[in-house]
Amino acid sequence: MKALTKYQLKKVSKNLDKYFNLATSEDIKQGKQWYKDANEICEDIAGRYDTDTITAAQVISALSPRNKWKQNILDAYTIFDAVQDGLSPEDIKVCTFHTNKFKAFNIAKSKTTITDKSLKTYNFCKNIANLCAESLTIDIWHLRACMDKLIKIDNASIGRLAYGQIKKLTIKKAEKLGLKGYELQAILWLTIQKNYGI
Asked: Residue 151 pLDDT > 60, yes or no?
């Protein structure tokens, strides 16, 4: 996706308002808490395994494909336990792809890192590791909230320019609502899944 036009950005803004207005009080409460809970998990891992929150977040992120959140967290602890005990990736099981398990091991061992070449994962890591207000996770659900019926969204792959535009718009809109960008994104994540396509 190339840079969005002014017309498209206006539509995105209206779509974000639409899905935020569909949020229940419980959606707002849960959305505001989600990243705080994730951050506490990163801090617990960092303290328990003598690492930092960004490394914990990157391991969690590496293990996330096709993995439910609760299992994702259990798998992150499994990785750090294994590294601490001198085990190899082949010695343990996690609920994601083998390539992601090996990547998580390498991150936990400080052999690799997630960079801003992977915009979604990089922003997600900064959100959960540090509650970074300047970062925003734009996943498939956030794109669906943004685009609604404007264009067909088959995956969460968008160009850097469009990512930056959506990120800036969402954070600005969140600030006007008295929220952090990641809080609005989490609220929208809850509402879009229940209301997409209406």
From this structure: no
